[in-house]
Structure formats: C-alpha cells, structure tokens
Amino acid sequence: MPSITVEDYHHFENNIYLPMLIKILEKDVELINRLTFKLHRPYLKVVDNALELIRKDLKQSDIYLIRFHMRLIKDKLENGNIEYTYISSGYEERHALISTQLKGKTEELMTAYLYKK
Length: 117
Description:
This protein has one domain (about 5-115). It contains three helices and three strands. The protein has helices spanning about 5-35, 40-65, 100-115, and strands spanning about 70-75, 80-90, 90-95. The termini are far apart.
C-alpha cells in the first residue's frame, strides 16, 4: 500500500504548478494590454477563463490539503533545482524537480487550461 495516495499526489502537484501558471498568465494579460493588438479582447477572454479555472482548482486543492492535514514544503537546491517535501498522514516524501520538468509540466497544464471551457 502506498504511503501517499494518487489523489494526494494530484493535489500536491496542483499546489506546485497552478501558482506558477497563475503568475505566467497574469504577466501575459499585462503584455496583451500593453501591446497594440487590433482585437485584444478575445485573447484576454481566453486567458481570463483559464485563470478562473486554475484559481478554482487551486482553491479545491488548498481545501483538500487543509482538510487532511497535509503540507507541501519547498526547498531550493543547487543548479536551479527545487526539492518539494510532501507530508501526509505521518508520511514524508521528498521529490526533486529539475527546472526543465517544471517548465514542461507547466506548459502542458497551460495548454489544457487554455482549451478548457
């Protein structure tokens, strides 16, 4: 039996990647507003819809972590790598993520959220 469930991992990952996505998309909104698009509202609408869905999912994951007394701890390692410690039900697991992994997964999630309705 695994110490941390698949659902727990899902919520831990949401708390890693979704805040990054929010930052990226908020910066994109600023860029869209500054640049001279002839029709910028459709782009803003797509990004705003994605941000709304991301914030909703992040809130659900935050509630889940609080409800089940789980914690996510972020530590910076050498060479730009980041180590996360997942704490759940008395179990503790460490996961080191390389910046390319973070970027790839963030890009994958961004694509998924931008196409969600």
